[in-house]
Amino acid sequence: MNLNIDKSNWTKVKLDDVCEWYQKNIPNEDQADFGIKYYVTANHIDGDSLKFYRYNELADGQKGPTITKHFEKGDLLLSTRSVALRKAAIAPVDGVTGEKLLVLRTKKKSELIKDFMPFIFQSLAFWEYAQNSASGSVNKFTSWTKLRNYEFLLPPKDQQAQLAELLWAMDEVIESENKTQHNIAKYLEAVSGRVFSRRVLTFQKEIPFEIDSQSFKEYNLNDLCDLITDGAHASPKTVE
After folding, report:
1. What is the secondary structure of the chain as a DSSP string?
2. Taking every pair of C-alpha atoms in the chain, what is the biggest distance, in angstroms?
3. 105-137: buried (b, 16+ CB within 10 Å) or exposed (e) per residue?
4. Higher pLDDT, 213 or 22
């Protein structure tokens, strides 16, 4: 899809002009008093996603001692490690995270509206800049000190609102299609279980599907398939 957008009135800005790195530390012993219930790590965030939906409860006892950085619902969490994975998404809850995730939000009186902000971090140009700014050999990492200088063209606020409405609507369609594909996969899994298993499978929600298997015949696998071999293999060498 090609969108003919007039960018003649767009303004070049730096990320630091419109976004800020929110830094509030809540020590482990005080988190319960602050009403903190959830924590998030980079593993909870999928690459190239606008939002994330996974998080853990503090009550599970698995939270690391360095996960003390506060964030609020609607903040954007950006992973500074392994930037090639492109993890930057909106938080659905309040909670705490670790130092490897930046908590970003629009500045007060910012020219960037909140609903448009996530799409800045989904652009190829941003992630190319992030990867070029990264250090390290394998798991490359970057920092706010480097990312804050990223420059991009920013539309006027009224255009941001229009674009944000369009882009969020497109994201909802994509999410709906993904859920449909997931449901189809689960349905096929259920059907396969009913056809090829003698036992009754248990589901959280019963699937209304019945198969009359009285006319089915039972075979051994070697009645239906040929065994194909490709010769002997040497034992692998171990590396100390």
Report:
1. -------TT-EEEEHHHHEEE---B--GGGTTTTT--EEE-GGGS-TT-SB----EEGGGS---TT--EEE-TT-EEEE-BSGGG--EEE-SS-EEE-TTEEEEEEPTT-SS-TTTHHHHTTSHHHHHHHHHH-BSSSS-B--HHHHTT-EEEE--HHHHHHHHHHHHHHHHHHHHHHHHHHHHHHHHHHHHHHHH-SSPP--SS--------TT-----HHHH---------PPPPP--
2. 74
3. bbeeebebbebbbbbbbbeeebbebbeebbeee
4. 22
Residue 96 phi, psi dihedral angles, 5° rounding: -130, 155
Say what the pTM is. Answer: 0.73
* pLDDT single digits (tens) 141-188: 999 999 999 999 999 999 999 999 999 999 888 877 776 776 676 666
Location of structure tokens 């674009």 = 163
Q: Which residues pair with 81 in a beta bridge?
A: 141
Select from 49, 60, 160, 151 the least CA-distant residue to 111: 160
Q: Is CATH 3.90.220.20 correct for 15-154?
A: yes
**Residue 108 · residue 99 · CB < 8 Å:** no
**65-69-72-77 Cα dihedral, nearest 10 degrees:** -100
CA atoms of 104 and 20, how far apart (whole Å): 6
